Amino acid sequence: MRTLPLPRQRLLNASLAAAFGTVITFWGLSASAQTDAQPTPANASTGAALPSVTVTPDAEENGHVNGYLARRSTAGSKTDTPIIETPQSLSVITADRFQAIGATRLRDALGYTPGVNIAPFGSDSRYDWIAVRGFDAYSPGFYEDGLPLRNANSFSVWKTENYGAERIEVLRGPASVLYGLSSPGGVVNVVSKLPTATPIRELQLQVGTNNHRQVAGDFSGALDADGKVLYRLTGVLRDAQLPAGKMADDRTYLAPSLTWKITNDTTLTLYAQVMRNRAGVYTRNRPWAGSLVPSAIGTFIPAKLFQGNPYFDHFNQDQELFGYNFEHRFNDTVTFRQSARAGRLKVDYRGLQAPSFATVNPDDEFDPVNFQNLSRSLFGSRESVRAFAMDNQAQVDVRSGDWKHKILVGVDYQHNNFETNSYSGGTAPDLNIANPYYFNGPFEIPDPYEMNATRLTQTGVYLQDQIKWRDTLQLTLGGRYDTAKSSVFSRLDGTSTTVSDHKFTGRAGLVYLAPNGWAPYLSYSESFQPTGVVDPVTNEPFKPESGRQYEVGLRYQPPGTKNSFSAAIFDLRRKNYISYDTEFQPKQTGEISVRGLELEATTQPTDRMNLTASYSYTPRAIVTSSARPEEIGKQANAVARNQLSAWGDYRFTNGIKVGLGVRYTGPTRGNGGGSPIKVPGVTLLDAMVGYDFEHWSLALNVRNLTNKTYIANCDTPSQSCYYGDQRKVLATATYRW
Predict the structure, then answer these.
(1) pLDDT tens digits along 417-454
(2) Tens digits of per-residue pLDDT, 265-321?
(3) Which 3 state secondary structure label does DSSP give 84?
(4) DSSP string of 265-292?
(5) What domains appear along the chain, each with residue ranges and CATH number?
């Protein structure tokens, strides 16, 4: 414990608007969530002495961090652990950080994070498609507050709201010991805003491109004089349009929560999230002939062409989540925690897809009339989800001499029911490239190709021991046994398929904690994911695919600073995935190898400046085994050899703040590695300018500052390419009192 001085009020004048100490006073927070917090000098303007307050170093209230640097996280261990002691790559993007860069979507918030591709399918209004270390993070889904937002490789994907988040955590590499079935690339966990004892009163207004208009509010505090009952209410109301077709992009989000401190050792938090999305469909996919390379007659399709149809396309999604977090500390040794959540989701989606050139003269493939129109088909799906998840944890903290043990025993369970009714094909009017006209039909909707009822269940039992010796060496050992079952009933033909899987996964990591802030580590981790596919030869289900990773890393947090640096070298393999031979028969022979280096830095050179930077070098991301020999040696998912990003912002004493970011992604051969030429690399700029005064904070953010037109990726099987996001301008006014 130590004492830090504070100012008398949040802002004395505009010249102190950006000063850190004034923010402390307004919120009534401890001086910093970091151990390196420095005393704030007496008021520079008046010379008045400042009152003091006692604070606890490293305090973080319900996941909130002041500034860009988080020092603790539960994502890498399911226990409250310093990040420097976590033997695996972990990035935490705080709310202050993703608000500064103007990120309104989860994928945008991860744009400055190493190892993450935020646009594997270019600009897409439907979901936050991302890839981590070369592997799709879309399936089996993100996590929120440590519980899964599961999907079943359909369009029933839970959405998250950045304004409702305190932080976004990315644990890179296999993590099944903690989370059960998961992608080998890693886990993304969103930490929600929950009640705080510190009063919060905030209103926010936004206007921007595409008729974006939004109002949001965040309120929290105590309901009683003793501070035993806390509340929080966060909400968003958005009225906007997509970048083309004058289609809606509207959202209503409401997240109430209540915390009851039953005793000093027992806490219960109840929460809910309700989201309504009413939108069209905006994607920017094109044939690669006419986008990446010229068409057969040397022409290109205009990048701004909207290939959908505003009369037909829509994407409406309703979702509700209801849950609780319970914690009871029996004594200084044993703590029990239980988290549970139930949810419902409905999706009504339809849109035009897969444009290709409409052949008018089949006798002459080079006839210019064959490259004047785009032919499109229809896709639609009505889906619903009922989901339940629970995680039970018993933590035992034991100390004997120089040894400390933090033992975690857990049992988690999830149950998900999916209903899908999907169609693909049909016909729609051709679209003239030079003179597009969006007819209201005729649209001939085909019969459904899928009407399935899918049930997914999983039960996992896990054990972890974090063993520390003399606060110098920490060994983390973990193991988990999962039982997973999937049942699919086809309402089209009455058939039913059930697949049961059992899998043990392990994890081990060692960290050396030097007193000067250096922390080298090494680790091994595993993942698994059921295939849900039956071997046509044996009529037995294929065993789960697996992932394994070796990682060697180094972290450095100089004492007395707000700086953090990390480096990691990894060897990651996805094994036993299903590939299909030339007869389209499944074989469990697939393997993908990814090796790379990742660097990340979060620094505060001065009290008014923040800098973040990341670099990913991935020289190997290839298929090493497949039922199709032509796939071997190529990339399954596009991974750039070099990816670099950096963001810096500065707050002047007069309240003005400025920020600039750069994001570079190197060239690739696209998904499948078969694009006719390399997809060019791209450098994008983001910028921010703002002004803080009294109770106001104003900011103007521009993403893709130069409005660069670029292709984000291409896909070999469909021979299509995806254009990236256009420029987005967003003005935000936030009032706090």
Answers:
(1) 999 999 999 999 999 999 998 888 899 999 999 999 99
(2) 999 999 999 999 999 999 999 999 999 999 988 989 999 999 999 999 999 999 999
(3) helix
(4) TEEEEEEEEEEEEEE---B-EEESBTTT
(5) 1-59 (no CATH), 200-736 (2.40.170.20)
